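Why Short-chain dehydrogenase/reductase? Reviewers of the renewal asked for a concrete example.
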Amino acid sequence: MTQDKRVWLVTGCSSGFGRAISEHLLREGHKVAVTARKIDVLADLAELGEALLLPLDVVDPEQCNKAVADTIGHFGRIDVLVNNAGIGYFAAVEETDETHARQLMDVNFFGAANMIHAVLPGMRRRRSGAIVNLTSIGGLAGFTAVGYYTASKFALEGLSETLRAEVEPLGIRVMTVEPSGFRTAWAGSSNETQAPIADYARTAGAAREAYHQSVGRQAGDPARAAAAIHDAILSANPPHRLLLGNEAFDVATAKIAQMKTEFEAWEQVARGADFPAAERDGA
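Here is what the prediction returned.
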């Protein structure tokens, strides 16, 4: 990829990060395939620049393949995929029913995977491209009331890390983005358990209430996040992981420190689980 204007495909653009990212890219003069399950909510974005509006439900692999094919047919290529589409659900782990747990994985993990599979053949042929997977600070650390949501984001982090090792030698970059609380509709639009368990009132219950109270008051600015993602991908050395928000930075760095302390405290036990060196070497 050169440093001139690029072709981007962004998922989940009806609101929140997806809309903010699309708006920023179009105002910067990029060509953008703007997708959502219902494209009527995207009409205003077409007035901002070279936008291709496409219907897309990322859970459907055929729709993912078609969106990629239509984008390539219209713009000639895809330089950057932004996997943004996702949903939330508030419940303690025990309070989460199987239907909602599987839906979170279908959208947040398998939906992103569907898009990755769809764009990789073209990127491999050109030996060029970038894949941006929006996970969450919840993809690096667990939080009460969003256990299965964070599980889906942890899974996407793991897939991204392996994918990076496989495709970077082919000229394709993979970046995960880990935001903390941003002023989007996510917290207000997420479903939640209808059968709360009293024992979790002080943990998951309190967290659910905090999410509700945070709507419209989150510290993060989606417009600034969109600019940060754009600038990171265009930089000479894009990061593998991009934290967004003070809370994200603080939580991530605190977790690294805590893990290091615990690993070192149990280092002897960890190292002692291997066969002794003499046995390994066949002596």
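The two ends are 53 Å apart (CA to CA). This is the kind of structural detail the renewal will allow us to pursue systematically.
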